[in-house]
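Hi W., the FE2/S2 (inorganic) cluster complex you wanted:
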Amino acid sequence: MPSYSFILNGKKVSVDCDPNVHLLWVVRDLLGVHGPKYGCGLEVCKACTSHINGEAKQLCGILVSDLKPTDQVVTIEGLADTVKQPLHPMQQAWLDNDVAQCGYCQPGQIMAAVDLVNKAHAAGRDVSDADLDSLRNVCRCGTYPRIRQAIKAGAAAMK
Amino acid sequence: MSDMTDKPGRDLSRRDFIAYLVAAPTLVAAAELSSGATPAQAAGLPTVQPVDAYDLSDLLTDAALPTSNLITVTVNSDGTASFALPRAEVGQGITTAVAQIIADQLSLTVDKVNVTLADARPELIWNQITGGSNTLHAIYKPVQGAAAAARAQLTKTAADQLGVSPSQVTLSNGQANAGNGKSIDLGALAKPAAVSQTTKVPVTANAAANANVGQPTKRIDALDIVTGKKQFAMDLTDVPDALPTMVCRPPTINATAKALKNQAQVQAMPGVSDIALIPHTKFVAGGVAVRAQTFGQCIDAIRAMDVDWGPGSVDGKSADDVKKDLIAAELPGVPTVSGITLDQRFTFHFRPGDPLETNAAVANVTADSAEVWSSLKTPVWVQEQLCTILGMSKEQVKVHVAQGGGSFGRHLFGDAAFEAASISKAMGKPVKLMWHRTDNFRQGRVHPMCTSRVRVNHLGNSVLSFEQRHTSVATDFSHGFGELLTANLATLPAANSLGYSQAIFNLSVNSPYNFGVTTQLLNEIYAYDTFNTSSVRNIYGPETRTAGELMVDQTAKAMGQDPYQFRRTYARDKRMVAVLDAVAKAGNWGRQMAPNTAQGIGVHHEYKSFGACLVEIDCTPATVNRKIQDGYSGPRVTKVVFAVDVGLPINPLGLQAQMMGGCMDGIAQALSYSLHLQDGYFLEGSWDNVGYTREWNTPPDVQVIVMDPTSDSPGGAGELGVPASMAATACAYARATGTLPTEFPINHNDPLWFDPVPTTPPIPASPVTAS
Ligand code: FES
Ligand code: FES
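Structure:
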């Protein structure tokens, strides 16, 4: 069985597995990192959203064989380390706004939010309501209004 | 005219607690309620609008009484308190509310209280059911009593140790203070305060301490959630070799797998370890189960399976057929003699009961034991059924309640637990069973399709009668919640009969207006298991109230009155007037609105609580025709103002969250959230198909007003937000467009905006995108 390696939350990891296995399952089932959640496996619900080389991606849509050994995969578990803080400002904003209900969607929501803000800031602008409308992450508990508040607060703290 | 406030006799004073100190290594206190309505009294319900005096929430609370003494609070040597909550936490925030109650009695901060979810405890019988938004109503006082008993014992022990009298001891911040400068940590008292023999003690709740109850309190699991540490069923590692397992499901609802024609080929696929044919039964959806190294390999194996399927339970049926059957079964109304009659039937389509976490369970069944983990609201009932399914005794079957990623009615049943246990037994190996999302929509439990016909008769300045004839596809009440009713209402007929559903209908449905002769009746079609149904965030409330409130608007219009003033005038309860006034004021009711936009207002009373909702909707072509890739746009609710009176709010911040979530449901249910039944299956297979609220349809402005306490005990809240917001959205839509919507969601009969995924293979291929 082939072996694949990449960098997961700052640490080099290797897995022996079939090339056709998606990253979501490599991370969850083989490496035991459970922050990214399964909500559809169809790149629709965005519950599995994590960062690959700093950009939000759905792990359910990426094959392990498409990764290079130098690729950086960051899940919710590794987010705070990227800013060398106990919590990323977006996680803190989530706490401050008491966003979560069941919490199942929230790792994906936070990872998507960080990416949204990074992109807006890179373009030299603030996060707009239209940006917030463009988020596709499903929250079946309906925490959307608090997500919007938290992203605005998190964005301010990320400047 | 009736006043719908709680009967004063039901509010138990502090003296009513019997508390116990339980023999244990550290201090453990327990409490029960010593009085209250007994189940026998419940049979003598008034027949007209029984919900006025005694509702579903009372029934669930009374059913809990005989075993409430088993609620225990433990004080630990590290100065924390722990409590194993005999309920399911599925996002509604009850663990946080319970921590607040205990923290107040012990003068601790909320973070010093550990609340976990109790395993199935057969001795609790009915006291372990999470349903009807009833949790806080049922357990507030017992939890308070147990914690108060612990406080008294800690105080007494501290007094002994510090050499003062108990009256001199005060508790604060995890310490007992003697008032003379001496103090001792509660943790140091945990062992000395323990008793070696269980004893009865008198209890006075610490009413003065309200540092946490009533204060906005953040969720106790929030940090675990935002750091990815919160564990749901599929994140558990208790059984290391419980490998990923999924099921190949049939092309139509409830069909049975007869044979897997290419077993050898599938067995040889990468990662696959086991395959088993799982028959469709009363308990188990079934199909062909596959266990593999990863879920991705299960998906690939399922897609490769060539299965011979038997017939399903509704083959060939479409929504139009069901609608015809519903209309044919509608009960007749009362003949009217005078006045003007408004008469309208509303149709509500099937909608999914999907939480974001799909059905999931871990099971380890061996020859003589079984252990199961799943999010379960009726774990005692699930354990009983597992004994039947596995042919084991209760001692052999252990049931653990996992944290749930939402519920929406799904977890009243043990679907995933039963199926996982059956597969584990068939394979002889532990399994981690997860449903695919597409199956979760197509084969999972749904809110039953129904019609609600409303007739209002009015003459001059009075409304003479209000009649509602609700006709529904049968709701499955075979879970423990249903058993509770049969056990506690002596007059009830057998399980899953129409009378059964009617009892729940009568206990939960009401018209909150003084509309003269008021009758609301339910009839059902089909058997309880023809479709897979459950009460999806409310049983009958959203539909009966939406139909009712639309007709209230029609009646107000016919009588030349303003919708808000009209509701105020006919309100049966002053708490309802208060929530209406609150939203009208904060939402600036009656303000000038642009063309194709409008306000709408709706109210709801249930679970001892009142809610009113005001929305503003934008139905302008620019908004309705927004292009959303792969998604539904349609009208957008731009503003929500919700006022909620739950009697005694324990955690206003959590309560606001619950109402906000309820409004996201209500809006979607009115506008876009449904399943299309066609040829025996549902067309929807993805979140992009079902039209549930997404960010692009989230109201930019949402305000939830928590009313001041109106009672000394908390009413329900988990589902309260849905009916009022759904009704308000429908009313706003009618006013913005000038057309009365009669089919819900209002987009249901529009051309489909998606291409349904195929039914064979039953789940779509996993997408492949470049990293
Ligand atoms: S699980 Fe990856 S997008 Fe839904
Ligand atoms: S918090 Fe439950 S799905 Fe988002």
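The longest helix of chain A spans residues 106-122.

W.
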